[in-house]
Write a structure and sequence with these properties.
Blueprint (H helix, E strand, L loop, with lengths): L17 H7 L6 H13 L2 H16 L2 H49 L3 H4 L4 H19 L1 H8 L3 H12 L2 H46 L1 H6 L3 H53 L5 H42 L20 E8 L9 E8 L4 E6 L6 H9 L6 E6 L2 E2 L5 H7 E4 L8 E2 H6 L6 H10 L2 H6 L8 E2 L9 H13 L5 E5 L7 H14 L4 E5 L3 H4 L4 E6 L2 E5 L17
Parallel strand pairs: 3-10, 3-11, 6-9, 9-10
Antiparallel strand pairs: 1-2, 1-4, 4-5, 7-8, 11-12
Protein backbone atom coordinates (compact mmCIF):
# COMPACT_ATOMS: atom_id res chain seq x y z
CA UNK A 1 0.00 0.00 0.00
CA UNK A 2 1.58 3.24 -1.10
CA UNK A 3 1.88 6.23 1.16
CA UNK A 4 0.07 9.31 -0.04
CA UNK A 5 1.59 12.75 0.35
CA UNK A 6 -0.41 15.00 2.63
CA UNK A 7 -0.13 18.67 1.83
CA UNK A 8 -1.89 21.21 4.07
CA UNK A 9 -4.18 23.84 2.66
CA UNK A 10 -2.57 27.23 3.20
CA UNK A 11 -5.70 29.20 2.34
CA UNK A 12 -7.17 30.99 5.34
CA UNK A 13 -10.91 31.44 5.67
CA UNK A 14 -11.99 35.01 6.44
CA UNK A 15 -13.87 35.76 9.60
CA UNK A 16 -17.58 35.70 8.68
CA UNK A 17 -19.18 39.11 8.70
CA UNK A 18 -22.84 39.95 8.28
CA UNK A 19 -22.69 40.27 4.49
CA UNK A 20 -20.82 36.97 4.17
CA UNK A 21 -23.39 35.31 6.41
CA UNK A 22 -26.23 36.46 4.15
CA UNK A 23 -24.52 35.46 0.91
CA UNK A 24 -23.39 32.23 2.52
CA UNK A 25 -27.01 31.16 2.87
CA UNK A 26 -27.20 30.82 -0.91
CA UNK A 27 -23.98 28.82 -1.25
CA UNK A 28 -24.67 25.89 -3.51
CA UNK A 29 -28.13 27.17 -4.42
CA UNK A 30 -28.58 26.58 -8.15
CA UNK A 31 -30.39 28.87 -10.54
CA UNK A 32 -32.77 25.98 -11.18
CA UNK A 33 -34.05 26.32 -7.61
CA UNK A 34 -34.46 30.07 -8.02
CA UNK A 35 -36.33 29.61 -11.30
CA UNK A 36 -38.58 26.97 -9.72
CA UNK A 37 -39.31 29.36 -6.86
CA UNK A 38 -40.34 32.08 -9.30
CA UNK A 39 -42.77 29.74 -11.10
CA UNK A 40 -44.16 28.40 -7.79
CA UNK A 41 -44.97 31.92 -6.64
CA UNK A 42 -46.62 32.75 -9.94
CA UNK A 43 -48.76 29.60 -9.67
CA UNK A 44 -49.77 30.71 -6.17
CA UNK A 45 -51.75 33.52 -7.80
CA UNK A 46 -54.11 30.98 -9.37
CA UNK A 47 -56.21 30.29 -6.25
CA UNK A 48 -56.99 33.95 -5.34
CA UNK A 49 -57.82 34.81 -8.95
CA UNK A 50 -60.00 31.71 -9.25
CA UNK A 51 -61.87 32.69 -6.09
CA UNK A 52 -62.47 36.20 -7.46
CA UNK A 53 -63.90 34.80 -10.68
CA UNK A 54 -66.20 32.47 -8.75
CA UNK A 55 -67.64 35.30 -6.62
CA UNK A 56 -67.88 37.96 -9.32
CA UNK A 57 -68.85 36.03 -12.47
CA UNK A 58 -69.63 32.36 -12.03
CA UNK A 59 -72.09 32.57 -9.11
CA UNK A 60 -74.05 35.60 -10.40
CA UNK A 61 -74.30 34.10 -13.91
CA UNK A 62 -74.62 30.38 -12.93
CA UNK A 63 -71.80 29.57 -15.41
CA UNK A 64 -71.35 25.86 -14.67
CA UNK A 65 -69.29 25.09 -17.78
CA UNK A 66 -66.90 27.93 -17.00
CA UNK A 67 -66.66 26.65 -13.40
CA UNK A 68 -65.65 23.19 -14.63
CA UNK A 69 -62.84 24.55 -16.81
CA UNK A 70 -61.73 26.88 -14.07
CA UNK A 71 -61.53 24.09 -11.49
CA UNK A 72 -59.60 21.83 -13.87
CA UNK A 73 -57.14 24.62 -14.66
CA UNK A 74 -56.66 25.49 -10.99
CA UNK A 75 -56.17 21.81 -10.09
CA UNK A 76 -53.51 21.40 -12.78
CA UNK A 77 -51.72 24.52 -11.52
CA UNK A 78 -51.75 23.20 -7.94
CA UNK A 79 -50.34 19.84 -9.05
CA UNK A 80 -47.57 21.55 -11.00
CA UNK A 81 -46.78 23.72 -7.97
CA UNK A 82 -46.51 20.63 -5.74
CA UNK A 83 -44.17 18.94 -8.26
CA UNK A 84 -41.92 21.98 -8.45
CA UNK A 85 -41.74 22.21 -4.65
CA UNK A 86 -40.68 18.56 -4.49
CA UNK A 87 -37.96 19.07 -7.10
CA UNK A 88 -36.77 22.21 -5.35
CA UNK A 89 -36.47 20.29 -2.07
CA UNK A 90 -34.31 17.67 -3.82
CA UNK A 91 -32.05 20.39 -5.23
CA UNK A 92 -31.57 22.14 -1.90
CA UNK A 93 -30.93 18.80 -0.16
CA UNK A 94 -28.21 17.96 -2.66
CA UNK A 95 -26.64 21.40 -2.20
CA UNK A 96 -26.61 20.93 1.58
CA UNK A 97 -25.04 17.46 1.34
CA UNK A 98 -22.38 18.78 -1.03
CA UNK A 99 -21.67 21.69 1.32
CA UNK A 100 -21.30 19.39 4.34
CA UNK A 101 -18.93 17.06 2.49
CA UNK A 102 -16.67 19.77 1.06
CA UNK A 103 -16.55 21.92 4.20
CA UNK A 104 -16.11 18.90 6.46
CA UNK A 105 -13.12 17.67 4.43
CA UNK A 106 -11.65 21.17 4.36
CA UNK A 107 -12.05 21.54 8.13
CA UNK A 108 -10.37 18.19 8.84
CA UNK A 109 -7.58 19.05 6.39
CA UNK A 110 -7.05 22.29 8.30
CA UNK A 111 -6.92 20.56 11.69
CA UNK A 112 -4.44 17.93 10.50
CA UNK A 113 -2.13 20.56 9.03
CA UNK A 114 -2.46 23.07 11.89
CA UNK A 115 0.33 24.04 14.22
CA UNK A 116 0.20 22.17 17.50
CA UNK A 117 0.51 25.34 19.58
CA UNK A 118 -2.44 26.94 17.77
CA UNK A 119 -4.58 23.83 17.99
CA UNK A 120 -4.05 23.46 21.74
CA UNK A 121 -5.30 27.00 22.42
CA UNK A 122 -8.81 25.50 22.44
CA UNK A 123 -10.02 22.51 24.41
CA UNK A 124 -11.08 19.22 22.85
CA UNK A 125 -14.72 19.92 23.72
CA UNK A 126 -14.63 23.25 21.91
CA UNK A 127 -13.10 21.63 18.83
CA UNK A 128 -15.91 19.06 18.84
CA UNK A 129 -18.51 21.80 19.05
CA UNK A 130 -16.82 23.62 16.17
CA UNK A 131 -17.11 20.49 14.02
CA UNK A 132 -20.74 19.97 15.11
CA UNK A 133 -21.56 23.41 13.72
CA UNK A 134 -21.32 21.84 10.24
CA UNK A 135 -24.50 19.89 10.93
CA UNK A 136 -26.40 23.02 11.91
CA UNK A 137 -25.24 24.82 8.79
CA UNK A 138 -26.22 21.88 6.60
CA UNK A 139 -29.69 21.64 8.16
CA UNK A 140 -30.20 25.35 7.57
CA UNK A 141 -29.19 25.18 3.93
CA UNK A 142 -31.30 22.06 3.26
CA UNK A 143 -34.40 22.99 5.24
CA UNK A 144 -37.34 25.29 4.87
CA UNK A 145 -35.26 28.17 6.22
CA UNK A 146 -33.20 28.47 3.06
CA UNK A 147 -36.26 28.12 0.83
CA UNK A 148 -38.01 30.81 2.87
CA UNK A 149 -35.22 33.27 2.22
CA UNK A 150 -35.40 32.51 -1.51
CA UNK A 151 -39.18 33.03 -1.38
CA UNK A 152 -38.86 36.39 0.37
CA UNK A 153 -38.28 38.67 -2.67
CA UNK A 154 -41.31 37.13 -4.41
CA UNK A 155 -43.62 38.57 -1.75
CA UNK A 156 -43.59 41.68 -3.96
CA UNK A 157 -45.57 39.72 -6.56
CA UNK A 158 -48.48 39.36 -4.14
CA UNK A 159 -48.25 42.99 -3.00
CA UNK A 160 -48.37 44.06 -6.66
CA UNK A 161 -51.42 41.84 -7.21
CA UNK A 162 -53.18 43.46 -4.21
CA UNK A 163 -52.34 46.91 -5.64
CA UNK A 164 -53.74 45.90 -9.04
CA UNK A 165 -57.00 44.57 -7.61
CA UNK A 166 -57.54 46.75 -4.53
CA UNK A 167 -55.72 49.99 -5.30
CA UNK A 168 -54.51 51.76 -2.19
CA UNK A 169 -55.53 48.72 -0.11
CA UNK A 170 -51.95 47.60 -0.87
CA UNK A 171 -50.73 50.38 1.46
CA UNK A 172 -52.29 48.55 4.40
CA UNK A 173 -50.48 45.38 3.38
CA UNK A 174 -47.16 47.21 2.93
CA UNK A 175 -47.49 48.97 6.31
CA UNK A 176 -48.07 45.74 8.21
CA UNK A 177 -45.33 43.90 6.32
CA UNK A 178 -42.85 46.67 7.14
CA UNK A 179 -43.82 46.68 10.82
CA UNK A 180 -43.52 42.90 10.91
CA UNK A 181 -40.04 43.01 9.30
CA UNK A 182 -38.81 45.57 11.85
CA UNK A 183 -40.18 43.47 14.71
CA UNK A 184 -38.50 40.36 13.33
CA UNK A 185 -35.16 42.17 13.02
CA UNK A 186 -35.33 43.37 16.64
CA UNK A 187 -36.31 39.96 17.99
CA UNK A 188 -33.55 38.32 15.95
CA UNK A 189 -30.90 40.54 17.54
CA UNK A 190 -32.24 39.73 21.00
CA UNK A 191 -32.05 36.05 20.17
CA UNK A 192 -28.47 36.36 18.93
CA UNK A 193 -27.34 37.76 22.29
CA UNK A 194 -28.70 34.80 24.27
CA UNK A 195 -27.34 32.36 21.66
CA UNK A 196 -23.84 33.76 22.16
CA UNK A 197 -24.27 33.29 25.90
CA UNK A 198 -25.33 29.69 25.28
CA UNK A 199 -22.22 29.03 23.18
CA UNK A 200 -19.99 30.04 26.09
CA UNK A 201 -21.79 27.84 28.62
CA UNK A 202 -21.92 24.89 26.22
CA UNK A 203 -18.16 25.13 25.61
CA UNK A 204 -17.44 25.01 29.33
CA UNK A 205 -19.71 22.04 29.86
CA UNK A 206 -18.34 20.13 26.84
CA UNK A 207 -14.72 20.66 27.90
CA UNK A 208 -15.54 19.47 31.42
CA UNK A 209 -17.25 16.33 30.12
CA UNK A 210 -14.26 15.47 27.91
CA UNK A 211 -11.83 16.01 30.81
CA UNK A 212 -13.85 13.81 33.17
CA UNK A 213 -14.33 11.01 30.65
CA UNK A 214 -10.68 10.97 29.62
CA UNK A 215 -9.57 10.91 33.26
CA UNK A 216 -12.34 8.76 34.74
CA UNK A 217 -9.79 6.38 36.26
CA UNK A 218 -8.10 9.19 38.18
CA UNK A 219 -11.45 10.57 39.32
CA UNK A 220 -12.43 7.21 40.80
CA UNK A 221 -9.00 6.52 42.29
CA UNK A 222 -9.05 9.88 44.10
CA UNK A 223 -12.71 9.46 45.18
CA UNK A 224 -13.63 12.73 43.45
CA UNK A 225 -17.01 11.60 42.11
CA UNK A 226 -18.98 13.91 44.40
CA UNK A 227 -16.83 16.95 43.56
CA UNK A 228 -17.10 16.31 39.84
CA UNK A 229 -20.86 15.82 40.13
CA UNK A 230 -21.26 19.17 41.96
CA UNK A 231 -19.16 20.98 39.33
CA UNK A 232 -21.20 19.44 36.55
CA UNK A 233 -24.44 20.44 38.28
CA UNK A 234 -23.31 24.06 38.33
CA UNK A 235 -22.31 23.95 34.67
CA UNK A 236 -25.57 22.23 33.77
CA UNK A 237 -27.53 24.87 35.69
CA UNK A 238 -25.89 27.63 33.66
CA UNK A 239 -26.68 25.75 30.43
CA UNK A 240 -30.29 25.25 31.49
CA UNK A 241 -30.69 28.95 32.26
CA UNK A 242 -29.32 29.99 28.88
CA UNK A 243 -31.47 27.38 27.11
CA UNK A 244 -34.51 28.83 28.89
CA UNK A 245 -33.59 32.31 27.63
CA UNK A 246 -33.20 30.96 24.10
CA UNK A 247 -36.58 29.20 24.27
CA UNK A 248 -38.20 32.36 25.61
CA UNK A 249 -36.77 34.54 22.84
CA UNK A 250 -37.86 31.98 20.23
CA UNK A 251 -41.40 31.89 21.62
CA UNK A 252 -41.63 35.68 21.38
CA UNK A 253 -40.72 35.44 17.68
CA UNK A 254 -43.32 32.71 17.03
CA UNK A 255 -45.97 34.69 18.90
CA UNK A 256 -45.25 37.82 16.90
CA UNK A 257 -45.66 35.87 13.67
CA UNK A 258 -49.11 34.62 14.72
CA UNK A 259 -50.31 38.04 15.89
CA UNK A 260 -49.28 39.78 12.68
CA UNK A 261 -50.95 37.07 10.61
CA UNK A 262 -54.27 37.71 12.33
CA UNK A 263 -53.69 41.45 12.18
CA UNK A 264 -53.15 41.34 8.41
CA UNK A 265 -56.37 39.39 7.88
CA UNK A 266 -58.39 41.76 10.05
CA UNK A 267 -56.90 44.99 8.63
CA UNK A 268 -57.38 44.00 4.97
CA UNK A 269 -60.91 42.71 5.57
CA UNK A 270 -61.95 45.78 7.55
CA UNK A 271 -60.45 48.30 5.12
CA UNK A 272 -61.56 46.37 2.03
CA UNK A 273 -65.14 46.15 3.26
CA UNK A 274 -65.29 49.95 3.23
CA UNK A 275 -64.20 49.90 -0.40
CA UNK A 276 -66.86 47.28 -1.21
CA UNK A 277 -69.57 49.42 0.44
CA UNK A 278 -68.31 52.43 -1.50
CA UNK A 279 -68.52 50.41 -4.73
CA UNK A 280 -64.83 50.65 -5.56
CA UNK A 281 -64.12 46.95 -4.97
CA UNK A 282 -66.13 43.82 -5.65
CA UNK A 283 -66.78 41.06 -3.13
CA UNK A 284 -64.65 38.70 -5.20
CA UNK A 285 -61.89 41.30 -5.32
CA UNK A 286 -62.00 41.63 -1.51
CA UNK A 287 -61.75 37.85 -1.13
CA UNK A 288 -58.82 37.75 -3.55
CA UNK A 289 -57.04 40.64 -1.80
CA UNK A 290 -57.53 38.95 1.57
CA UNK A 291 -55.93 35.75 0.28
CA UNK A 292 -53.14 37.63 -1.51
CA UNK A 293 -52.24 39.72 1.55
CA UNK A 294 -52.10 36.56 3.65
CA UNK A 295 -49.98 34.93 0.96
CA UNK A 296 -47.65 37.98 0.99
CA UNK A 297 -47.31 37.55 4.77
CA UNK A 298 -46.31 33.88 4.50
CA UNK A 299 -42.81 34.44 3.04
CA UNK A 300 -42.13 36.98 5.78
CA UNK A 301 -43.42 34.59 8.45
CA UNK A 302 -41.21 31.81 7.16
CA UNK A 303 -38.35 34.28 6.81
CA UNK A 304 -38.82 35.32 10.42
CA UNK A 305 -38.49 31.69 11.49
CA UNK A 306 -35.41 31.50 9.28
CA UNK A 307 -34.13 34.76 10.75
CA UNK A 308 -34.33 33.43 14.30
CA UNK A 309 -32.49 30.28 13.21
CA UNK A 310 -30.12 32.45 11.22
CA UNK A 311 -28.76 33.90 14.46
CA UNK A 312 -27.66 30.41 15.45
CA UNK A 313 -26.29 29.85 11.94
CA UNK A 314 -24.14 32.99 12.15
CA UNK A 315 -22.63 31.67 15.37
CA UNK A 316 -22.14 28.26 13.75
CA UNK A 317 -20.35 29.89 10.82
CA UNK A 318 -18.10 31.77 13.25
CA UNK A 319 -17.31 28.49 15.01
CA UNK A 320 -16.49 26.80 11.71
CA UNK A 321 -14.28 29.77 10.85
CA UNK A 322 -12.24 29.02 14.00
CA UNK A 323 -11.36 25.68 12.47
CA UNK A 324 -10.63 27.09 9.02
CA UNK A 325 -8.54 29.91 10.53
CA UNK A 326 -6.17 27.58 12.40
CA UNK A 327 -2.62 28.56 11.59
CA UNK A 328 -0.93 25.88 9.51
CA UNK A 329 2.62 24.77 8.93
CA UNK A 330 3.15 25.41 5.26
CA UNK A 331 6.01 23.35 3.82
CA UNK A 332 8.12 24.58 0.96
CA UNK A 333 6.27 24.34 -2.35
CA UNK A 334 9.44 23.20 -4.12
CA UNK A 335 10.70 19.67 -4.54
CA UNK A 336 11.16 17.88 -1.24
CA UNK A 337 14.71 16.72 -0.43
CA UNK A 338 15.78 13.09 -0.26
CA UNK A 339 18.00 12.41 2.72
CA UNK A 340 20.95 10.03 2.52
CA UNK A 341 20.88 9.11 6.21
CA UNK A 342 24.08 10.99 7.13
CA UNK A 343 22.42 14.33 7.93
CA UNK A 344 22.55 15.73 11.46
CA UNK A 345 19.59 17.05 13.45
CA UNK A 346 20.56 20.46 14.76
CA UNK A 347 19.00 23.23 16.86
CA UNK A 348 20.67 26.63 16.61
CA UNK A 349 19.84 29.40 19.12
CA UNK A 350 16.31 28.03 19.44
CA UNK A 351 13.80 29.73 21.72
CA UNK A 352 10.11 29.03 22.07
CA UNK A 353 7.24 30.86 23.76
CA UNK A 354 3.70 29.54 23.78
CA UNK A 355 1.02 31.96 22.50
CA UNK A 356 -0.21 34.16 25.34
CA UNK A 357 2.70 33.28 27.64
CA UNK A 358 4.99 35.97 29.06
CA UNK A 359 8.11 33.87 29.51
CA UNK A 360 9.74 31.50 27.00
CA UNK A 361 9.65 27.79 27.80
CA UNK A 362 13.00 27.29 26.10
CA UNK A 363 15.66 29.83 25.16
CA UNK A 364 19.04 29.76 23.43
CA UNK A 365 19.06 26.00 22.85
CA UNK A 366 22.00 24.69 20.82
CA UNK A 367 22.10 20.97 20.16
CA UNK A 368 23.45 18.70 17.43
CA UNK A 369 22.77 14.99 17.03
CA UNK A 370 24.44 12.78 14.45
CA UNK A 371 23.12 9.46 13.12
CA UNK A 372 24.53 6.66 15.27
CA UNK A 373 24.74 8.98 18.27
CA UNK A 374 22.58 8.87 21.41
CA UNK A 375 22.03 11.79 23.74
CA UNK A 376 19.99 11.84 26.94
CA UNK A 377 18.17 14.81 28.44
CA UNK A 378 17.10 14.87 32.06
CA UNK A 379 14.36 17.36 32.89
CA UNK A 380 14.34 18.96 36.33
CA UNK A 381 10.55 18.64 36.71
CA UNK A 382 7.29 18.13 34.90
CA UNK A 383 6.60 21.12 32.67
CA UNK A 384 10.24 22.05 32.25
CA UNK A 385 9.96 21.93 28.45
CA UNK A 386 11.41 18.52 27.56
CA UNK A 387 8.40 17.50 25.46
CA UNK A 388 8.34 20.95 23.87
CA UNK A 389 12.00 20.48 22.90
CA UNK A 390 11.18 17.20 21.13
CA UNK A 391 8.19 18.78 19.41
CA UNK A 392 10.52 21.45 18.03
CA UNK A 393 12.79 18.72 16.68
CA UNK A 394 9.89 16.97 14.95
CA UNK A 395 8.55 20.18 13.45
CA UNK A 396 5.24 19.97 15.32
CA UNK A 397 6.17 23.32 16.86
CA UNK A 398 7.97 26.13 15.09
CA UNK A 399 10.70 27.99 17.02
CA UNK A 400 9.93 31.53 18.11
CA UNK A 401 13.57 32.29 17.41
CA UNK A 402 16.41 30.30 15.92
CA UNK A 403 16.23 27.36 13.53
CA UNK A 404 15.70 23.62 13.69
CA UNK A 405 17.42 21.91 10.76
CA UNK A 406 17.83 18.43 9.36
CA UNK A 407 21.02 18.54 7.34
CA UNK A 408 20.85 21.80 5.38
CA UNK A 409 17.06 21.98 5.40
CA UNK A 410 14.80 23.86 7.78
CA UNK A 411 12.43 21.31 9.33
CA UNK A 412 9.55 23.80 9.00
CA UNK A 413 9.91 23.62 5.19
CA UNK A 414 9.62 19.83 5.04
CA UNK A 415 6.35 18.12 4.20
CA UNK A 416 4.71 15.87 6.84
CA UNK A 417 5.65 12.75 4.85
CA UNK A 418 9.30 13.82 4.52
CA UNK A 419 9.52 14.62 8.23
CA UNK A 420 7.79 11.36 9.13
CA UNK A 421 10.33 9.30 7.20
CA UNK A 422 13.29 11.07 8.84
CA UNK A 423 12.08 11.69 12.41
CA UNK A 424 9.93 9.52 14.67
CA UNK A 425 8.47 10.76 17.96
CA UNK A 426 7.67 8.19 20.67
CA UNK A 427 5.24 9.79 23.16
CA UNK A 428 4.99 9.05 26.86
CA UNK A 429 1.36 8.00 26.63
CA UNK A 430 0.47 5.11 24.36
CA UNK A 431 -2.59 5.84 22.24
CA UNK A 432 -4.56 3.80 19.74
CA UNK A 433 -6.71 4.45 16.72
CA UNK A 434 -9.88 2.47 16.09
CA UNK A 435 -8.75 -0.77 14.46
CA UNK A 436 -6.96 -4.03 15.21
CA UNK A 437 -3.71 -4.27 17.15
CA UNK A 438 -1.92 -5.20 13.92
CA UNK A 439 -3.37 -2.19 12.09
CA UNK A 440 -2.17 0.06 14.91
CA UNK A 441 1.30 -1.48 14.76
CA UNK A 442 1.57 -0.85 11.01
CA UNK A 443 -0.48 2.38 10.99
CA UNK A 444 -2.71 0.74 8.38
CA UNK A 445 0.25 0.23 6.03
CA UNK A 446 0.53 -3.49 5.18
CA UNK A 447 4.07 -3.14 3.81
CA UNK A 448 5.30 -2.51 7.37
CA UNK A 449 3.86 -5.76 8.69
CA UNK A 450 7.07 -7.83 8.68
CA UNK A 451 9.07 -5.16 10.51
CA UNK A 452 6.25 -4.52 13.00
CA UNK A 453 5.85 -8.21 13.86
CA UNK A 454 9.58 -8.61 14.39
CA UNK A 455 9.65 -5.59 16.71
CA UNK A 456 6.62 -6.94 18.54
CA UNK A 457 8.45 -10.21 19.16
CA UNK A 458 11.52 -8.35 20.42
CA UNK A 459 9.46 -6.25 22.86
CA UNK A 460 7.44 -9.18 24.23
CA UNK A 461 4.18 -8.15 22.58
CA UNK A 462 3.86 -11.61 21.03
CA UNK A 463 3.37 -13.25 24.42
CA UNK A 464 0.79 -10.65 25.43
CA UNK A 465 -1.33 -10.91 22.27
CA UNK A 466 -1.19 -14.71 22.44
CA UNK A 467 -3.33 -14.50 25.58
CA UNK A 468 -6.04 -12.53 23.77
CA UNK A 469 -8.82 -14.53 22.04
CA UNK A 470 -8.24 -12.82 18.69
CA UNK A 471 -4.54 -12.09 19.10
CA UNK A 472 -3.31 -9.34 16.80
CA UNK A 473 -6.82 -9.05 15.35
CA UNK A 474 -8.19 -7.70 18.66
CA UNK A 475 -10.03 -4.42 18.13
CA UNK A 476 -8.64 -1.49 20.13
CA UNK A 477 -9.10 2.26 20.06
CA UNK A 478 -12.59 1.94 21.55
CA UNK A 479 -13.91 1.02 24.98
CA UNK A 480 -12.40 -2.45 24.51
CA UNK A 481 -8.91 -0.94 24.59
CA UNK A 482 -9.47 -0.02 28.24
CA UNK A 483 -8.87 -3.69 29.07
CA UNK A 484 -5.26 -3.35 27.88
CA UNK A 485 -2.81 -1.93 30.40
CA UNK A 486 -0.91 1.26 29.73
CA UNK A 487 2.25 -0.83 29.51
CA UNK A 488 0.79 -2.80 26.60
CA UNK A 489 -0.39 0.41 24.93
CA UNK A 490 3.13 1.81 25.27
CA UNK A 491 4.57 -1.31 23.62
CA UNK A 492 2.13 -0.85 20.72
CA UNK A 493 3.11 2.81 20.43
CA UNK A 494 6.81 1.91 20.49
CA UNK A 495 6.46 -0.70 17.74
CA UNK A 496 4.37 1.70 15.65
CA UNK A 497 7.06 4.38 15.85
CA UNK A 498 10.11 2.15 15.47
CA UNK A 499 8.54 0.39 12.46
CA UNK A 500 9.08 3.59 10.45
CA UNK A 501 12.86 2.91 10.65
CA UNK A 502 13.42 6.65 10.79
CA UNK A 503 16.77 8.39 10.78
CA UNK A 504 16.18 9.89 14.25
CA UNK A 505 14.21 8.47 17.19
CA UNK A 506 12.83 10.96 19.73
CA UNK A 507 12.06 9.04 22.93
CA UNK A 508 9.80 10.94 25.37
CA UNK A 509 9.64 8.67 28.44
CA UNK A 510 7.89 6.13 26.24
CA UNK A 511 8.67 3.30 28.69
CA UNK A 512 7.24 4.80 31.88
CA UNK A 513 4.59 2.05 32.25
CA UNK A 514 6.71 -0.89 31.06
CA UNK A 515 7.94 -3.42 33.63
CA UNK A 516 11.56 -4.37 34.28
CA UNK A 517 11.65 -7.28 31.84
CA UNK A 518 10.13 -5.22 29.08
CA UNK A 519 12.51 -2.37 29.87
CA UNK A 520 15.49 -4.69 29.43
CA UNK A 521 14.13 -5.86 26.07
CA UNK A 522 13.63 -2.25 24.99
CA UNK A 523 17.14 -1.28 26.05
CA UNK A 524 18.63 -4.10 23.99
CA UNK A 525 16.58 -3.07 20.97
CA UNK A 526 17.49 0.63 21.27
CA UNK A 527 21.16 -0.28 21.56
CA UNK A 528 20.93 -2.03 18.19
CA UNK A 529 18.96 0.82 16.61
CA UNK A 530 21.57 3.30 17.83
CA UNK A 531 24.05 1.82 15.33
CA UNK A 532 22.13 3.34 12.41
CA UNK A 533 19.80 5.98 13.87
CA UNK A 534 20.22 8.97 16.14
CA UNK A 535 18.56 8.71 19.58
CA UNK A 536 17.32 11.60 21.70
CA UNK A 537 16.20 10.16 25.03
CA UNK A 538 14.03 11.87 27.62
CA UNK A 539 14.10 9.50 30.57
CA UNK A 540 14.90 9.10 34.25
CA UNK A 541 15.69 5.40 34.08
CA UNK A 542 19.41 4.73 34.47
CA UNK A 543 19.14 1.68 32.19
CA UNK A 544 18.36 3.95 29.22
CA UNK A 545 20.50 6.90 30.28
CA UNK A 546 23.54 4.62 30.11
CA UNK A 547 22.97 4.25 26.36
CA UNK A 548 23.77 7.92 25.84
CA UNK A 549 27.04 9.18 24.42
CA UNK A 550 26.21 12.65 25.74
CA UNK A 551 23.96 13.77 28.58
CA UNK A 552 22.27 17.10 29.25
CA UNK A 553 20.25 18.59 32.10
CA UNK A 554 17.28 20.80 31.19
CA UNK A 555 16.76 23.52 33.79
CA UNK A 556 15.20 26.95 33.49
CA UNK A 557 14.60 26.54 29.78
CA UNK A 558 18.25 25.85 28.98
CA UNK A 559 20.31 22.69 28.56
CA UNK A 560 23.65 22.07 30.23
CA UNK A 561 25.98 19.24 29.27
CA UNK A 562 26.94 16.86 32.07
CA UNK A 563 29.02 13.73 32.29
CA UNK A 564 27.21 10.67 30.84
CA UNK A 565 26.45 7.72 33.06
CA UNK A 566 28.93 4.84 32.80
CA UNK A 567 27.87 1.91 30.63
CA UNK A 568 26.71 -1.14 32.60
CA UNK A 569 29.09 -4.06 33.04
CA UNK A 570 28.30 -7.16 30.97
CA UNK A 571 26.02 -9.53 32.80
CA UNK A 572 27.84 -12.61 34.22
CA UNK A 573 27.45 -15.85 32.33
CA UNK A 574 25.15 -18.08 34.33
CA UNK A 575 24.37 -20.67 31.69
CA UNK A 576 27.26 -22.98 32.65
CA UNK A 577 28.53 -23.11 29.07
CA UNK A 578 32.11 -22.38 30.19
CA UNK A 579 32.24 -25.06 32.83
Amino acid sequence: MSETTFQPTPRKAPEPGYAQDVTGVFRGTSWDAVGATFIINLLSLVLPLTLMQVYDRIIPNAAFSTLTLLVLGAGAALMLEALLQYLRALTSGWSAARFEHLEGCRAMDRVLSSRLSTFEEQGVGEHLENFNSLGRLKDFYAGAAMRALIDLPFALIFVAAVAYLGGWLALVTIALLTLFALTAAWLGRQLREVLLERVTTDNRRQNFIVEVLSGIGTVKAMAMEAQMARRFERLQENCSNTNYKVAQASSYANGASTYFSYGMLFAVAATGSLLVIDGRLSVGGLAACTLLSGRAMQPLQRAMGAWTRFQDVRIARARLAKVLNLEVDTPSQGKQPKFSGDEALELTDVSFTYPGADQPVLHDINLRVEPGQAIAIRAEAVGSGATTLLHLMTGMLKPTAGTARLGNHDIANLSPVTKGKAITYLPSKGTALKGTILENLTMFRPHRMAVALELSRRLGLDDITAQLPRGYETIIGDSVSDTLSQGVMQRISLVRGLATQAQFILFDEANSAIDGEGDAELRTLLKEIKATSGLILISFRPSLLKLADEMYDLKGGQITRVEPMPAPNPAPNTTGADR
